[in-house]
Amino acid sequence: MESRGMSVRVAAVLASIVVAATACTSTQGDAPGCEPAQHPAGWSVARQWNEANLDAIRRDLPAPTVHARNLYHTSAAMWDAWAAYDDDGIGVFVDEKIPSDDVAGDRLVAMSYAAYRVLEHRYIDSVGATETIPELDALMESLCLDIGVTSASDDDPASLGNRIAEIIIAAGLEDGSNEAEGYAAEYEPVNPPLVVSESGTVMNDPNRWQPLQIDNMVSQNGILLDTGVQEFIDPHWGYLTAFALPPAPANGVPIDPGEPPHAGSPTDQQFKDDAVEVVAFSSLLDPTIAAMVDISPATLGDNTLGTQDGTGHPMNPITGEAYEPVVVNEGDFGRVLAEFWADGPDSETPPGHWNTMANTVSDRMDGSLLIRGEGEPVDRLEWDTKLYLALNGANHDAAIAAWGSKGHYDYVRPISMIRWMGGFGQSSDPDGASYHPDGLPLVDGLVEVISEATSSPGGRHAHLAEHVGEVAVYAYQGNPPDPESAIGGVGWILAIDWVPYQSPTFVTPSFAAYVSGHSAFSRASAEVLTGFTGSEFFPGGLGEWMIEADALEFESGTAEPVPLQWATYRDASDQAGLSRLYGGIHVRSDDFAGREMGAEVGQAAWAKAQEYYGR
Asked: Could you read off the pLDDT of 82-109 as tens digits, one per residue?
């Protein structure tokens, strides 16, 4: 939430290793006169390349599908190089066994060439390439490796790394992504654009996705875009070659979540209820009137899969003590959730965010590193390399499964649902004013018809007196003119003017809603972390990410720090899904189906990764 591009911490670490690398007088990994720089933070070489990948993501356009694929292919490249020097490991793309008298040194070289070549290929034409490619080059230099060594046919570690990268790059050109043409896909929206700055909307089909037309459209990580009308990102992604999922059927939906609720169908009431629930979440985003609530694991979490029915955890099973209350302003909590989980704390997209979370978990592991929580301890390189393969195999498959559903069901976003229904009137009282079967359901204090009485001086709708007969919602009022010093707050607005709690230059993602990608990525990652660490709980029974005061970007706040806490990885993933309702991006049907899909994806990826581990 705080930074754009390379984080200050990573930039400082990179500067340190580049300085250390200046002592090198040779460009071979184990050549006399050059010692690979020890990373100041003690990171394994796999971690260093993972962090470089995350930096590249932060600078680039935030396409979670593409970045999940890049994380997976880079992780697989490092794994195949690592496994070449292991008796049990099985390569994913390249399964070779190379004899070595210096396994540690040869692994460093082979893994680095493999990761470097894949990342260079994927990000050389990206937004931010002028910073990303020099960072990759500098990391190679710090490891005493010559980027000019391109041989790929021998058994030396550099050739092995280059060969692995060549094979993965070639496979990526045939995996269904259409990488060669910039991941282009044919898609024509059935609905005309919704002009966000104007009231209401017109839809040919209220159940289908509607692109937005936005003034000064900017990506979620701050990159100015060329057009003001959204284009669907990667509707073809369900057909990609996966890590653990079976090939998609003809409809491109490898995991079918079933139909979402539809307006004008037997599930019409659920469609309406979902939209009204988002309005209700929107009404909680004003810290000046919000209640104080406990957001600790004592009260939140432990949900049944695909629900929000949890009431927290009675105690921390690691310490045997009750979780301490964390009482915060509910308006601040909702705003923090919407921003923290939107694209990750440093705009690394949801797959990258879960890599950041996993790295933090790894850094906190107490005592020996035991994969699955059992067996012999492993060193940090083996831990990281195996974790990245499983985690990013899961994220890659979550993108395939979620976007398969998005492309097939082409489902509507809340801004279109609420404006479309609000434009018709209310659907609760056939004998009441402004009735229409496609209108919004009435909820006292939340969704109401403006009347002469309510709009009279002193009435709750007085400022809307010119709109008698129209539907008003009690919701977030939109971005303030000066987000540095003001908040949008909550109040009565016309339903046809409703906007989510997002940046006014972004508003909603540029693809269909069902299922929630955040929910799928997050639950898939949580399943892998649960299996890999051998515990559903964060180290010490508590995961925490402190959001400092005044860290919000969409508007001013928060007045006090807000510590986000979770007992389990699944609790954190559920919160990621819930955050999209606070932010007005998804309805619960998107979220819950995404959680269920993510669980299936994550369990399959973890099982497949263990096959590659070989033991």
From this structure: 999 999 999 999 999 999 999 999 999 9
The full DSSP string for 292-322 is EEE-STTTS--PPTTS------SS-TTT-SP
Write the DSSP string, 484-548: TT----EEEEEGGG---SS-TTT-S-SS--SSPHHHHHHHHHHHHHHHHHT-SBPGGG-EEEEE-
Instruction: Please tell me whether residue 88 adopts helix, strand or coil conformation.
Output: coil
Tokens of 304: 């049944």
Q: Which of 17, 25, 29 is nearest to 144 (CA)?
A: 29
Residue in the block written with tokens 């479309």: 420
Residue 142 above 90 pLDDT?
Answer: yes
Q: How many CB atoms lie within 10 A of CB 505?
A: 18
- The separation between the first and the last C-alpha atoms of the chain, rounded to the nearest angstrom, is 40
Q: For residues 272 and 279, is the Cβ–Cβ distance under 8 A?
A: no
The amino acid occupying position 145 is: L
Please give the Cα distance from 115 to 117 (Å, whole number).
Answer: 6
Environment class of 535 (CB within 10 Å of its CB; exposed 0-12, middle 13-18, buried 19+)? middle
The rounded Cα 356 to chain-centroid distance in angstroms is 11
My answer on whether omega of the bond before 515 falls inside 30° of 0, hence cis, is yes
Would you call 246 helix, strand, or coil by DSSP? coil
Residues 6+ apart with CB under 8 A from 575: 300, 301, 337, 341, 564, 566
Q: Is the pLDDT of residue 156 over 90?
A: yes
**Residue 99 CB neighbour total at 10 angstroms:** 9
Confidence of residue 344 (pLDDT cuts 50, 70, 90): low
pTM, 2 dp: 0.93
CA gap 78, 179 in Å, rounded: 21
